[in-house]
Structure prediction request, 554 residues.
Amino acid sequence: MSGSARRPVRRRTFVLGSAAAAAGVALTGTAQAASFGYTDDGSNYVIDTGANLVFKVSKTNGDLTSLVYRGTEYQGYDGKNSHVESGLGTSTVTITQSGSTILVSVTYGTLKHYYAARSGENNVYVWTNKADTSVSATRYIVRVKAGLFLNDEPDSYTYAPTTIEAADVFAKSDGQTRSKHYSKLRVIDYNYVGWTTGSVGLYVVRSNHEKASGGPFYRSLLRHQSAAGGGLYEILYYGENQTEAQRFGLQGPYVIAFTDGGTPSSALFPGTLTTSWADSLGISGYVAAGGRGRVAGVGVSGRDTAYAYTVGLANSAAQYWGSARASDGYFSVSGVLPGTYTLTIFKGELAVYTTSVTVTAGATTTLNTIAIPSSNDPANASAIWRIGTWDGTPSGFKNAALMTYAHPSDPRAAAWTGNVVIGSGSETASFPAYIWQGVNSGLLVYFKLTAAQAAAAHTLRIGVTTAYANGRPRVTVNSWVSAIPSPPTQPSTRSLTVGSYRGNNYTFTYSVPASAWLTDTSQYNVLKIDVVSGSGTTAYLSAGTSFDALDLLA
Prediction:
């Protein structure tokens, strides 16, 4: 490793998806594997990949205790190793070599964990099989020494002196907030996460998240950086603002990859990674390509071409997704375990179509063109006025973009108060993305109606994407007050303050009688939106909700 690579040089950091992958470069480590093999130092199995990487696995608990790349140790901070969750207890650890592959197997109760090395590669392939709740295993964390990579990106906790919420949200001296929760990106948006100095790159290439939960738009931990060192994550199950039950079974492979400073090879990405070399290794829960199937759709009609559409497959055992082609909606989702799935088509992040599909091993389930009924997309309804867009996200609302990587109290956020006048031309940008009982409850919308409109009853709709502490909107129109709606099912953990608006999309509807409107068409009608709930605490941890769109139907 060059001297400049050893110094704490501030360079680029990467959390990139497939769109950026085209610019990636191949992995280093195609060197001759003259020394490929393993030894036993008494406490660890020492694996030499025959390239530039030597790593150690504890014979006691299966921790990754050393990662030496080009002679430099990268593993560890605060005396902690890289491992599943916070480390396993005493485990059964074995090692085998089969030709150009070395496999380390770790068994701890019902959990089975694996590391594999391939001759001539600077990669560690990792699998984790969590069979039930008897063993805690919600993540794998690669712990990296301090000073080797510097990072102050919005999607990473960087050491900050002031704790502003719980023990995991912090403020820097300039007030900007940081937290390991602020992933900024959804799972669908990235294939790998890591750092580079320009001459050395260290990344975790994510798995296909087949056994994870939350779907393609879920946000979970990516990485963190502190005074003690840095961490890169592969999340096996993350409970923060989670919408699905935990899935069990084999997760992986995910890959710890060293490079010559460039991004990982696209050959390692989910959907393109092939591990036929692992078919005969005896990995618990492993299903080879021949035991999987594929779903392909001729097309999707009834789309709004201004939006990206995603096709998701999910059941209690597995989840998958793929993009619908912009031109005609064609989609293909491969590598699917056999079974019956709910197929969901998302406009943005809003579900607009569902059906059932069955997948069989070694076969393709082909679907004819799927027609999305017009009534399934709320944007197709004729409206007197509309704020926001019906896409399942708070996109376009005030502070929406910032909230995936900052706390609502961050000084970069505009004031959460702010009323809206329909016809001003800035309705959406002026309307806050979130509303809390203890912060900005009582938002006002001013609008005029024609005489014909004021003579009729109308439906008011408010779409939300998640809620905290059962927060839901109660509305007042002039002197008319709605009933308090029942709370929809939403995650029970923090959401709005930890970078996530992704809960369960839900639309509240209010039947506003004609008697509620002002008969003087020169006057503004006033819609007041309050958050109601008996739960929550104060300020940004009071009951709240996030907006997708709101409109008054014609």
